[in-house]
Every structure is written in C-alpha cells, then in structure tokens.
Amino acid sequence: MSTPERHKLEFGDRLRELRERAGYSGREFATAAGWQASKISKIENGKQLATDADVLTWVKLAQVPEPAATELRDELRTIRLEAANWKRQLRTGHRQRQEQSLSTEADADTIRAFELMVVPGLVQTADYAHHVLSTAAALQQTPTDTAAAVQVRLERQHALYDSAKHVELLITESALRYFPCPPQTMVAQIDRLIALCGLATVHFGIIPLNTRLPHLPASGFWIVGDTALVETVNTEINTDDPEDVALYNRLTDSLWNAALQGDDARRLLVRVSTEIAQLPQQD
Fold first, then answer.
1. CATH classification of 93-277 is 3.30.870, yes or no?
2. pLDDT digits (tens, 9 = 90+) for 261-279
C-alpha cells in the first residue's frame, strides 16, 4: 500500500473513532449530515477522501473541540498534497489527469482561470497543447501519452459553449510573449484567442505588460466550482476550504480590474501576433 493510501485509511479510522465516540451509527451520522450512508463507509474505509467541507461537518456533528478540529483539517491537507504530487498523478501519463479535469469542469457552473505563463488549457490549439504536455512529461519524467491527452484536453473545450456555465479566462501578456512551441504555432494559438474575444459565453481578458497590479499573484490558479486549484512544479494544490476559495475569488476580482477586454484585448493580441510572426521560423 502506498503512503498516501495508508494515510487515507488512517484518517478514515480517526473519523470513525470520532463518530462512534459521539454515539452515532454510520446511518445516523449520514442522516444528520444529509449524506448517503455509503459515503460514511467509503470515507472511513479509505475508499474516498473527505473534502474540507466534509471534515467541517464531521467535527461539528461529533462535537470535536479545537485544536483537534484544526489538526484534522491540517492532516487532510497533507494527505491531499501527497496524493496530488505530479509523479503520482502522472504515473500513467497525462490523459487520466485530463479526464479528471473534463469531468470536474463538466459538473461546474463556474470556471475562473488565471494564468501567468501559459494559455489556459480550455482554449489551447492541438499543436500548442502537444508542446505543453510533451515538455511537461519530459520534465516530470513520466510516461508520454501526449496524443491521447491532447484529445481529451480538446474535449474539455465543450465547456466554452455551454450557456449554463460562467467561464472567465484571464491571462497576462507574458503568457503570449513566452511560448513552449515554435513561433508559427504561437501565432496560430493567438488567432484562436482572437476568435475567443467574440465568444458570448466566455469572459476573456489580458493584463498587459507595464501594468500596476492591485496584488501580486505568486502563480496561476483556477477556481472550478467551489474548489481552487494551484499548480506548482512538483504538485497540485487543491482546496475547497470556503475561506481559501473566497480569497482566490477576491484576488481574481482585483486582477480583472487591470485587464484589457473586448476590442482592447483583440488589438493587443493582433500586435503580439504580428511581432511573433516576424521571428525566425522553427521546427
């Protein structure tokens, strides 16, 4: 059994002890929490990792005092970080991780993305996505299934045309100026973004260079539904803590105040594309 799996099982045991100490049967606890009874069994047996919201409900019903409740939430974050390590997530390649994003985004009513150095996956062309995913596999030294992963990444883009969703994509000009592909591929990618400016179902913006920012984001991040996701070099940090998600939403709101949108964004894209097109062509 891997370390994350063992820790998940141990965490489930702790939650079971708290439930039993509070005098609840599994079915009674599920009813009080408004959950399916099977959810209690899955969490306690390590088959399903509790969310932060689940733990908040658990400690409230079991009347767990502070600081024990805080300790439980900290332990959960540690387990989630272990499970989210890129080496672990990508052990069979990128396709499985892309399928996870496809499912998560399909279920979400709101998608808010901010990227510093890369065009968001939801609007990547196939060629650009191929370079992004293949270079990531090389860095992580994980199996290469780039063609299959690109196919799923393109399937994710159906979310852009779902009128029931609220989709926001915000990037910096640096995401256009630095690219993991030949210049001609980047020009085609920018053409895709220019077309995006006219899409009614997507709110798209660019923060230009030489702009005073209200806050300095340390990295790109996504808010999908009620979960915030942050990618680092070695892992992915996910949080559904309401305070964390609210913080990322406030940061996103403030960054939009510095963004170009509509015709202004389109003019910037055309200018950058023209400049990149003049660079020497590469294979």
1. yes
2. 999 999 999 999 999 999 9
